[in-house]
Design a protein that fits this description.
Helices cover 43% and strands 15% of the residues. By secondary structure, the chain is α+β, with helices and mostly antiparallel strands. A 4-stranded mixed beta sheet has the order 1-3-4-2. A two-stranded antiparallel ribbon has the order 5-6. It is globular, with a radius of gyration of 13 Å.
Length: 122
């Protein structure tokens, strides 16, 4: 697991997470490729039950939610830790469609989510 950044599990326990083997299966790729995606900042992992997991909300039927990797990059460039990114992505915001940044991404509102992420850097 070395080299894979892991966020603290600040998610509500009701938020579904997927072990890396299930993520690989859902994406039709290998666990090693999923680990590479985590190292490259395309996804964020937490440890739950002693196992590395990724929030299920990061995925749609045909892969990773569009705009997630770019949003993670913007937040990283703004100095956010993985834990802070995760907290922000799942934080309630009634001014966003979908009520959280991750749900806004899932409903094709990525431009607005990235705009807000960029604004937080200043």
């Amino acid at each position: 697991m070395s080299g894979i950044p892991v966020a603290e599990d600040v998610l509500d326990p009701a938020v579904a997470v997927l072990p890396l083997t299930e993520v690989a299966k859902a994406l039709g790729t290998s666990v090693n490729k999923v680990r590479q995606m985590l190292r490259e900042g395309q996804l964020i992992a937490v440890k739950r039950g002693g196992e590395l997991c990724v929030p299920g909300a990061f995925f749609v039927k045909d892969g990773v939610v569009k705009g997630l990797a770019g949003t993670i990059t913007v937040l990283a460039d703004s100095g956010f830790s993985r834990t802070e990114m995760l907290r922000w992505l799942f934080e309630e915001d009634d001014t966003l469609p979908g009520s959280t940044p991750v749900n806004a991404l899932r409903t094709s509102h990525g431009t607005e989510v990235k705009r807000r992420a960029q604004a937080m850097a200043f």
